Amino acid sequence: MFTSKFGIEIEFTGITRNEAATVAAQYLGGTISGTGDYYDTKKVTAPDGRVWKFMSDASIDCRRKQNHQKVSAGRDYSVELVSPILTYSEDIETLQELVRQLRHAGAFANNSCGIHIHLDGAPHTPKSIRNFVNIIASKNDLFYKALQIAPERMRFCKKMDIYLVDRMNRRKPTTMRAIEEIWYEGYRDNRGQHYHDSRYHFLNLHSFFTGNHTVELRGFNSQLHAGKIRSYIVLALALNNQALTQRSASARKPQTENEKFAMRTYLNRIGFIGDEAANTGQVPQLEKIVAVIRSREISLCLFLQAQSQLKALYKDHAETIMGNMDSVIFLGGREHSTIKELSEVMGKETISMYTESLTRGQQESHGQNLQRLGKELMTMDELTTLDGSKCILQLRGLCPFLSPKYDLKKHPNYRYTAEADKKNAFDAGRLITRRMKLNPNEEYTVYEVDAEETADIDEDEDILNYDDVDDPDAFI
Q: What is the pTM for the complete model shown?
C-alpha cells in the first residue's frame, strides 16, 4: 500500500504564489522559474530534478491577514500547490515539513479550498476500477460525514452518480474502453477538455481517461495541518489498495443506525491499525477509556514511533494513558525524550567500585577503597545503540528485561496467517449475513421477480449488516 505512487494538490491562501514558491525553494534547496501561462505558475525545481508547482485556482476565496483579521485579497493570494510524483515511504516527511513551512509563512486554508489526491492508475484493471466505483458509492454518506466536507465545496466533489453506478453494475464492463463510455454517458461537452463536468465528484475518473492517467479523490477539505494531510493520504492509499486487491465490491450502502461504529469497522477492515495510530486522529477520552477497559477484559495496544507523538496528540493526558499500560515494549529508536524517560523508568543497579592508590615519596603510602554506587540499568547511549535484534519489555510488577525479538515466520502456525497466504485473511462479511435460512417445516409466500430490475449484489459484497446484531455498540 505504501509503495504506491501518488500526487497531491493543496489549495490555500494567506500568502502569494511568489511567497509560497520562495518558501518551497528555500526548504527544498531548489530554484524558481515562471511559465507565464494562464495560471501564473511558479515552478520550484528541487535538486533531485522534481518540480513543485504553485499556480492560481479560480475557485479559491482569496484572503490575507491584516491586524489579526482575515480580509479580502487579490488573485495573487490564490495558491494551489501541485506536487511531483511522490511515494509515502520516501516523501511523506518532506511533504509534511513543506506544509509546516508554508503555514509558518502565513498560509492558511478556508472553506473554498480543497485537497485532491491523485493515485497512480497504472496498476488498475477494469475490475479494480469497478471496485473503486462501488466502494466509494457504498461509503459516500459515511465519508462525507467523517471528512466533514464543507458545503461550499459540494459542487466540486459531488457524491457518486447513482445512474452511473447502476449502469456500471448492470453492464459489468470488462474493458477500459467500455468503462470510459459509461463514465461519459449523458454528458454533452467534449470529453477531451480539462474542466469536464464529470470530474467534479468525490471519485474522478476523468483524470484517468485523459491527462495523467490517475485516479483522483477530491473529497478532502484543505488543511495546512501536516498530520491531517498525512491521514488523508493514508486513507486514499488504503482505498486504492482495497480496490486493487479485493475480489469484488458492492455498491449497496451499509445499514447506518450506528454511523460511528460503521466507520470504525470499515477503517479497521482496510487496515487502519498499527503504527499509524498517531496520525489517524485523536481518540476522544482515551485517557478515561484505558482506565476502565481492563476490568472489562478489553485490551488496547498502541503502536508509536516515539513517545513524543502521544504527548503531542494528548497533551497532559499522555501520562495517564501510559500509566494505565501494563506492558511496554521498546523496539529501538533515537528520539531523545523516549530514550531519557525509558532510562529513568528502568531504574538503577548497584555496582561495586574498587580503587587503589599508591603515593611515592620519602614515605611510601598505599591505600584501598571499596564503594557501592548506583548506575542506570541502561544509559541513554546504550539504549540508542540497542541491537536491532533485541527489545526491552517492561511488565507491571516485574523488572524490565532484555529479550531477543521473535521471528514470527518461524512460528509453527505462521502458515495459517494472511501474511503467509492471502486465502487465510479474515472476512467479517462472510460471518455477518442477511441471507435467510429456509426451514422445511414453515410455509413461505413465493414472489416472482424480474432479475433485470433488481440491484446486482455480489456474494462477497462489502457491507456490514446490523439486522443480525442485537447491540452494535457492544462490539466497539
A: 0.63
